[in-house]
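Run log // design_07
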């Protein structure tokens, strides 16, 4: 059901905070979906209609979503698999990760840990290149999700505008989580040359950022138990101007 533009749906502040907190803590990147359990269009529209309230500087809203299911989803997947669909050296439209020579050394270590944990849960030997490739190619079937979304950004935008679209994506994922759905944001769908642009008739004024798999998680697949670690607050937060810990107003 579409929402009004006020953002007020009759919930108390406590209810909203509890709901958001639960969704943030529960959300994860799901890599195995129930392919034969469709997501009703009305439910998707409800999620996206609410998500459009995501913050956007200057209210520019530089985002576009191409939502596919059924035959349209299958045609997109098939387009990727066509011989010669991908050029041997498609020019990158953006850097997914910074080059190793300039990236903080923690990036590579974190990425390896996620990959090793994922492969272990998939039963993939990390030394088996063929098995790793097969696992990676599941990205392009949206990990079996019945709904595949391609996310684009207005090409005119610089990095700030991409941040707006990131806030939309997180909002979609949290709303999906609240409604019992699972998601996976997939950078793999970017930088594929013209194949996705052609398949979905995406104009040249937009740049493909990523895909978003949406559906119901397959509870039988161990890979869906993967939980990545996060750094403690002290590693990335600096507080200034607050009273010392344990101080009371009367002592200030």
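design_07 sequence
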């Amino acid at each position: 059901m579409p929402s009004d533009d006020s953002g007020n749906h009759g919930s108390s502040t406590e209810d909203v905070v509890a709901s958001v907190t639960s969704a943030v803590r529960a959300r994860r990147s799901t890599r195995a979906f129930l392919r034969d359990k469709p997501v009703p269009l009305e439910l998707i529209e409800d999620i996206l209609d609410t998500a459009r309230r995501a913050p956007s500087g200057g209210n520019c809203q530089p985002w576009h979503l191409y939502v596919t299911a059924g035959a349209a989803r299958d045609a997109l997947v098939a387009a990727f698999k066509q011989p010669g669909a991908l050029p041997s050296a498609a020019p990158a439209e953006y850097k997914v990760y910074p080059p190793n020579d300039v990236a903080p050394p923690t990036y590579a270590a974190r990425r390896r840990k996620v990959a090793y944990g994922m492969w272990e849960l998939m039963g993939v030997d990390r030394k088996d290149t063929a098995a790793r490739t097969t696992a990676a190619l599941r990205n392009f079937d949206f990990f079996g999700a019945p709904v595949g979304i391609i996310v684009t950004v207005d090409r005119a935008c610089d990095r700030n505008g991409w941040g707006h679209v990131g806030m939309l994506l997180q909002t979609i994922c949290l709303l999906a989580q609240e409604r019992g759905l699972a998601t996976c944001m997939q950078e793999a769908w970017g930088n594929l040359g013209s194949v996705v642009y052609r398949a979905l008739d995406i104009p040249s004024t937009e740049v493909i950022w990523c895909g978003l798999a949406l559906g119901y998680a397959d509870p039988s697949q161990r890979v869906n138990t993967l939980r990545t670690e996060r750094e403690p607050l002290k590693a990335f937060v600096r507080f200034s101007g607050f009273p010392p810990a344990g101080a009371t107003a009367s002592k200030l």
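The CA atoms of residues 87 and 193 lie 7 Å apart.
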